[in-house]
Amino acid sequence: MGTTVSLLAPAKVNLTLDIKGPRPDGYHELETIMHQVNLVDTVHLRRLTDGIEVSTDSPLVPGDSDNLAYRAAVEFFQATGIAGGVDIHIEKHIPVGAGLAGGSTDAAAVIKGLNRLYAAGLDIKDQMALGARIGSDIPFCILGGTALARGRGEILTPLSPARNLLMVLAKPGYSVSTREVYARYDQGKVTRRPDTGGVEAALASGNLAGACAGMENVLETVTLECCPEVALLKQMMTDLGAVKALMSGSGPTVFGIFLQREVAEAACAIINRYYEEVFIVTSFERG
Ligand code: ATP
Known about the structure:
four-stranded antiparallel β-sheet; 34% helix; Alpha-Beta Plaits; binds adenosine-5'-triphosphate; Ribosomal Protein S5, domain 2; 29% strand; alpha+beta; 287 residues; 10 strands
């Protein structure tokens, strides 16, 4: 067994996001297609004889037990009964509070990394179940690729990988609280819902135009009210050549889908004059 391991922890975007109704447990019944992109944090783990240490190069992320990565390590040691510890260092590149699952992907990387570091033998289902105890997006971050998520986000069906999907991501200079966005969701205000089945079928047949036609995010109704820049960014993306522009998750990050790299690069440069956090990404490919 080695004593260190480093993992790439990719961000996700929601190609569709629909809310089917309230659940008895107070959460919302979700239906969303999630997709990993190659904007990544790097998570370094080093075995310790005991204790959990967390550090990060970002001032925006807690460097203590409030970090989701810390909680993932606690759950791992509790669930496996392994006596050990870990030093976790997170190189943060994914914008924080952005709707890109930055914290969840770090936590997912810790579960996967500890499983390797301690040769714990948890299969992917065990790892996903462990992750679900900490946060709804973590099982997807463990599974990876492109997947349909239902329930609170933890019931996952892998989909045909949306390969080489070229996107520009842009985040306004503030964050939103996922919890608050869901709390303020009012289905009476929704006028456009995604065609989830249509997007799934279009992705399977490689029909990008068809997939784009069905993409919507019902949480835009909430975030657009408090963050007019989301609408502005969507408009900028389409004006600059995106074939589709949508908010990811609870926002405020907007992604634009582009067909040509030169067009995406030009759009990225222009948006970057007004916003600091702008990235060109494609689909995350493991290895
Ligand atoms: P999601 O898309 O899953 O709703 P998000 O991208 O909107 O998540 P995160 O970047 O995960 O939001 O951060 C949300 C909050 O979690 C922040 O307030 C942050 O301080 C806290 N947090 C805890 N651990 C981490 C981590 N490892 N990386 C980022 N944020 C973290």
